[in-house]
């Protein structure tokens, strides 16, 4: 049992990086909120097929869609190791890599209203 405790505390040290939203960014062309949602849905639907655990992908999606306080709690409880504070690069406890595009984490500066 001592082993489990030491693994968990090590994981907590690794996830103490304070989460923040990505820096403002611009999409290659102005997009609507509907197009952004479609891009996000496509990413979350296909990402698990490129490796990593489905549970971690689900936790990352919940994190991306939550406010920062809740996001921090989700990351901590799922044992996700945040490599970049803006969450564009994360790892699970087994060392699998999870790369998140900025468009799933925040809105572009050139978002346009749906007509």
From TrEMBL:
Top-level lineage group: Eukaryota
Chain positions covered by the region annotation Disordered: 1-32
Gene: LOC103696129
Transmembrane region(s): none
InterPro entries tied to this protein: DC-UbP/UBTD2_N, DC-UbP/UBTD2_N_sf, UBTD1/2
Protein name: Ubiquitin domain-containing protein 1-like
Comp. bias (Basic residues): 17-26
Residues of the DC-UbP/UBTD2 N-terminal domain: 16-114
């Amino acid at each position: 049992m001592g082993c489990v405790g030491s693994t968990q505390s090590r994981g907590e040290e690794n996830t103490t990086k304070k989460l923040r939203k990505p820096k403002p960014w611009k999409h290659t062309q102005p997009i609507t909120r509907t197009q952004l949602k479609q891009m996000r849905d496509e990413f979350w639907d296909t990402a698990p097929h490129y490796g990593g655990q489905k549970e971690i992908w689900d936790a990352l999606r919940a994190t991306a869609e939550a406010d920062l306080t809740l996001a921090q709690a989700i990351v901590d409880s799922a044992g996700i190791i945040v490599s970049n504070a803006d969450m564009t690069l994360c790892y699970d406890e087994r060392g699998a890599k999870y790369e998140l595009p900025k468009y799933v984490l925040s809105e572009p500066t050139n978002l346009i209203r749906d007509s």
